[in-house]
Amino acid sequence: MRVSAQIHVSAPPSLVWEVISDPTRQLGYMSGITRWEVVGEQPTGLGARYRMLLRVGSAEVGGLIELVEFVEPREIAWTSVTGVDQRGRWRLREASDGRTRVELRLAYGVAGSGLGGWVAEHVAAPIVTGHLRRTVQQLKRTVEAEQVRARAAARRTAQSA
Amino acid sequence: MTTQARRNGHPPQPAVTSSANEDGGSILTRVLRGVAEQAQRRIPRADLDERDPDFIRERLPLMWLIASIWFRGEVRGLGNVPDSGPVLLVGNHSGGNLTPDTIVFTLAFNAYFGVERAFYQLAHNLVLAMPALGSLRKFGTVAASPQNARNALESGAALLVYPGGDYEVHRPSWQRNRVDFDRRKGFIRLALEQEVPIVPVVSIGGQETALFLSRGDRLARLLALDRMFRLKVLPISIAAPWILNIGDMLGHVPLPAKITIETLPAIDLRAEFGPDPDLDEVYDHIIRLMQDTLDALAAERRLPIIG
């Protein structure tokens, strides 16, 4: 099952990138995420691994994931190493007026789970889609609020100088 | 039978010595003894290696459907379980022979820690002997015995036990919010012997999946079921589709009661109670902790079944 969510953020891709590429910030804006821990020595970049969990219905599902694409400031993709099969992707594209089009995709399932798995994937789809939508909305709020604060701080610095 | 019992980690059972059997026994007792022997033969060999992570992984979506839609399961506090190493999970048990709390917790544990983490559950012999429930062994369910419990913990696995067992799981529905282990303290001795932490697991809702009327413990003693099947109860309930359900041997269709489970912080017995803890003191402490949690979960609940 593949689900996605999109949004336009009123900030350049570099600012959005700062948030989505920082593993310490995932719990702050990603809806339904209950765990996001760095596994190993490498905190970010290609090959970084995380243990993540997403609350879906009566379980927290996820497992160990690894970043398989890391193209600043455009793409982050990951795939599962253990746990539920998943492939995810952040796509950042520059839009008009200095805005950024953000897309979050997630494909998930359990290979070999048969009809039960097919039904479960479809029943879970609205829940997962809801998490993705709230995630991009919260990302937009986070990035735009930080941008406003950064501009205000710059103005104060300029005035005091 | 003795060989079979040893294979499953049980000490040899004494022969049935009720007065009814000394003089040849009634027809009913002889029939029951025959069924008992058949059931004992059916009990599969206790082998930890039968747990199959791939099988569990492939069944998790179906379990998720049952747990999420039928029971609206909610499991809290799994972060309290140590991330690795052997641990003894001690739960209160509800819902008759088809225990929804076990389904919901097994799903949650395997999803949270991954099927790669060895996780075993102890179950009554007769549950494992039921033909339709043979696949439970692949989930890591093994016959409840001290030896099997030791084997599981020595292998470094997480082990879920229900000390109340058949006694607690068939308590009347009006005692649904009571933790009742029948003063069984074997789990404490096990944790001390293996030097593993105890993590209490408290669940609510299971006893609302049918109307449980009586354990039938006197009836079980009268029929010598305790000696033949290690069954201390012959439960009587009103449950679908049987209406009057005696024994619950064929299971029942559980009502869709909301199951909420709370996992409490791990207890290191020697750190909290000293090098030689008093079993009664530890037992009372754990029961009090679990009962307080169950009371809090009951206070959250607005309506039976609906939750």
Describe the structure.
The complex is a heterodimer of chains A (161) and B (307). With 161 residues, chain A is α+β, with helices and mostly antiparallel strands. Chain A has a single domain, classed as START domain (Alpha-D-Glucose-1,6-Bisphosphate, Chain A, domain 4), CATH 3.30.530.20. Chain A contains 3 helices and 7 strands; from the N terminus they run βααββββββα. A 7-stranded antiparallel sheet of chain A has the order 1-7-6-5-4-3-2, covered by helices on one side. In chain A, β5 and β6 (85-94) form a beta hairpin. Chain A starts with a strand and ends with a helix. With 307 residues, chain B is α/β, with parallel strands linked by helices. Chain B has a domain at 49-210 and 256-298: Glycerol-3-phosphate (1)-acyltransferase (3-Layer(aba) Sandwich). Helices cover 40% and strands 14% of the residues of chain B. Chain B contains 13 helices and 10 strands. Chain B has helices at residues 2-7, 19-22, 27-42, 53-70, 100-113, 125-129, 146-154, 165-169, 186-194, 217-222, 225-229, 269-273, 279-300; strands at 74-76, 87-91, 119-123, 141-143, 158-161, 198-204, 211-214, 236-239, 243-246, 260-263. In chain B, the strands form 2 sheets. Chain B has a 7-stranded mixed sheet, with helices on both faces. Chain B starts with a helix and ends in a 7-residue tail after the last helix. Mean pLDDT of chain B is 87; it is low at 1-7 and 12-24. The interface between A and B is medium-sized, with 26 and 26 residues.
